[in-house]
Amino acid sequence: MTDQTTLRREIASEQRHLDRVYARLAELRRSAVRAERDGYRLARVGNFGALVERDAMVFHAAQRRHTLDAEYEGLVFGRLDRHDGQVLHVGRLGIRDTDAATLVVDWRAPAAAAFYQATPAQPLGVVRRRTIQSRGERVTRIEDDLLDPAAAPPDMAVVGDGALLATLSRATGRGMRDIVATIQREQDEAIRSPGSGVTIVSGGPGTGKTAVALHRAAYLLYSDRSRYAGGGILVVGPSSVFVEYIASVLPSLGEDTATLHSLGSLFPGFTATRTDPPEVAAVKGSLRMRRVLERATRDAVPDGPGELRLLYRGQLLRLERAELDAIRDRALPRGARRNEVRRAGFDGVLAALYAQARRLAVPRLPEQRAFEDELIDRADFRDFLRAWWPRLHPRHVLGWLARPDRLRRYAGGILSGAEIRLVQQAYGRLAVDGLTVADVALLDELDALLGQPVRPARPKRDPFRLAGGVRELSTFADRQRAAREAARQRPEDYREYAHVVVDESQDVSPMQWRMIGRRGRLASWTVVGDPAQTAWTGDPEELTRARDQALGRRRRHHFTLTTNYRNSAEIFAVAAAEIRRLYPDLPLPTAVRSTGIEPVRLTVGADELSTTVIAAASALLAEVEGTVGVVTPVPRRDEVAAWLGALGGSRLQVVTSLEAKGMEYDGVVLVAPGEIRADPGSGIRTLYVALSRATQRLTTVDPVT
Ligand SMILES: Nc1ncnc2c1ncn2[C@@H]1O[C@H](COP(=O)(O)OP(=O)(O)OP(=O)(O)O)[C@@H](O)[C@H]1O
């Protein structure tokens, strides 16, 4: 226990430093605003040099002001006292005093690495590490770790009982929080791993894989901004619920240039949230689907014209279905993209018609070119071509799979009879239910197979048009700014990312790896996941192959995280017992925090399930400060959501066991765990995920059958 006088004295000393930092911050902000204003004034001078100078000035000043505002809260969070007496404060931003003395070191700078990496075993020259918490401009709490007692001067105070545990016991908000002040050594090593190649981070539930992946994105943007902000960083997560949950982390670190997507929203124009049962997802996600889709893209359009009949100069010209099919086949050699070789198909039809007209000795038959021009001018002929070989959108072709005869034809010899029946059932209500997450990867594959339909040209962005539609004859800087803005608003189908982060990678199917791979051909990667949490029930060898293909031959750096920061030890023990049924020898993380509160297990009659779930959720809302998640088997989600209505407002969320992936709540009510476990494919692994979502309280409610 630290004595209160020492604590007050230490807090007061940090407060003095914080006061200097915020005074300097205010000064920097004022000068940024001034620079922006002066920049605009410079423009009046009118010569080219002045304009360029103004541009640079205005742009940097505005950006600086934005950063200073974004990093205001919790600006300084750490302090290192080193052997040589040097003191370094670590924060969200690097700040220097007027005499260039360092007031704060940016957490991503090499000098700050010791804050995360020093341990008592390897103090790296650090005697005392201090974590500082503040609200607004006031220091609220400090926590010290004495890393090298032998080197500590006799008057060095050590206060608090550990920043990490203090942070972990705080309630969870609706979104994930940044962990910048308490990143642990093994996490820091993964965060700072080289920018090139593939960084693979594995570890059990709650070990901070997601937190590491996001902080790594922020680190990369800091270490090589032009590369990563220019090319862009893509972060892919499993579901839209999850993406919403993590969306605030990067902005809280002052980074808003990364693009976040769920697996269901990677294909432009569609956002799928519905999931297939695991056995269907296994078929739709299999690489064999590529061959099924390839066959589909070569087929005739359903309900398209079966033949062509054309009256030409009194003579009937005819092309039968077989001839039309043969023309299409010739125009579409293997590997060609149907939308891109339409012209070859049209030429084939024209050539066949001309040959026929000659055979039939049509009177006054002109040269072939003139004949073709004549036909092309005819509306009925153009209508035929459009109907016979339309520009196809992937959505059209995927729809063909909903026709049982077509599906059998495309999948015959590739999928088994049972698999075909599964897919057929799944697509039975495609028009009503819409796409599932697994379908989105199929759309993307079809897009690659079909080629881009020619899109209507977008009006070009006018670099002189400023926000609010004001057109100003402007300068290089305005254009620069417009260009940067354009980089931020990348086209929807942008595919040249400089870095791709894949979270919950254990659930990415082979077809989804292909989809993500297309967006990272030139990228370096961060891939995080936990195989023990996968819901994938398809071929594991195929999965490895698809993943290897997406990641290419880049060098791989492996990291394993071993501490569970999320669950109380009591809650994780229940989850661990579950996964041990399947993998008795699996190394599991250690949960660092104990609450002394055991999870509650309820078994009730089926008719009492709804009242029990409502009561359990209400109890948890009263017991925890933060969020409550009600996790259900997939088929029960809507029913349970209806029971709970608006209970808890934004503090309560109902999610399926699949949507729960990556999520975190202070309290969890798990509905019908037995039903989740009963799935023969991935039941236990999915239950393991569901049981490891809670930080404080867990109640399971099982109906007896
Ligand atoms: N160093 C840390 N300091 C404070 N909190 C941390 C730290 N590392 C992780 N956490 C917290 O632990 C929780 C779990 O982290 P995260 O969601 O990143 O784990 P995960 O490994 O992705 O879990 P899962 O595999 O179960 O999805 C989060 O609340 C995160 O903020």
UniProtKB/TrEMBL annotation:
ATP binds at G203, G204, P205, G206, T207, G208, K209, T210. The keyword Nucleotide-binding applies. Signal peptide: none annotated. It comes from the Bacteria. Residues 182-568 form the UvrD-like helicase ATP-binding domain. One of its GO terms (cellular component) is cytosol. One of its GO terms (biological process) is recombinational repair. Keywords: ATP-binding, Helicase, Hydrolase, Nucleotide-binding. One of its GO terms (molecular function) is ATP binding. This is DNA helicase IV. It comes from Micromonospora nigra.
